[in-house]
Every structure is written in C-alpha cells, then in structure tokens.
Amino acid sequence: MNPILQNIKSRRSIRAFTDEPVDPDDLDRIVEAGLWAPSARGMQTWQFTILTDRQRIAALASAIATQLQRDPARYDMYAPAALVVASNDRENPHGMLDCSCALQNMFLAAHSLGLGSVWINQLRGICDEPAIRPLLDDLGIPPNHLVWGMAALGHPAGPPPEAPARRGVVHFVR
Length: 174
Description:
By secondary structure, the chain is an alpha+beta fold.
C-alpha cells in the first residue's frame, strides 16, 4: 500500500503517553509538516506555539479545567511531553480551517515518527476569558489570535485503539 495512505489509515488518537520527552529534532519535523499545510489564500496567519515544559503544560491544563468547571486533578490534557498550540488571527475568517489542516499534518507526521498525538479542543471557546488570556499572553500568543486547537504529543503508553469502521459516509454522484 502507498506509505502515505497507510500512515493516514493507521494513525489513531493516543490518550496516554509515557514520561519520555519528544526528541527536539522530531518536534521540529512535526511542526514543519504543519507549516506545509494549505492555508486560505496562502495567508499563513497562523502561529504554532510549542510547549515542552511539563509544568507549563500542567498549568495551562489546570486553568482550562477550572474555567470549564472540571476537576483540575483529573483534567491534564493527557499529560503530553509536548503541546502545540495552533492559533490564528481572529480577523481571518478561515483561521480555524487553516489551523485544522496544519494540525492534521502534524498528527500524521508524529505518527510517521512513531509518536502519538491527540487533538485538544478546549481552548477554542475560552481564549479571551480573564483566567486564560494572561496565560496565552505569557506564552507569546498574540492578543489578536484565537486558539483553534492543540496537538498533544508524546510516546504512546500502550497500543493504539482499534479503528472504528468507516461505512455509509461516502456518496458518489456520477
């Protein structure tokens, strides 16, 4: 089978990671894959903020949990070794779509390197909350940016889950 199609078909969301850090060269490769994603009109108004400090990741997870009224002791964004925060200019009407394409490229790149990944969505609606925005500012995320998604990355702590069946979702009109 074509290796690209095989990579797409075998990638799964990984929700448990080991404590092993992600190799910086692999992290560079993953983010570079995101940079090559399509963006509407080629604007590339996105920013990818990469966190590898587990304390900063945990602090962000705790703030998100508190804002969403979840138990901070249980919500940890799966405790990844690395986190990519994908943001885009709030004036770009295609920012969410651009970030989604970039994150998908990153997930596929991570999988091709033997790493696990999972989409983290919780910041999307709470970026401008008073308990959250200062944390984003501290991470260097521009104030005119919204966070559209995050990629939690790390070494899988176990085997990937089984793939769900894909049927009844394609309709050809010929």
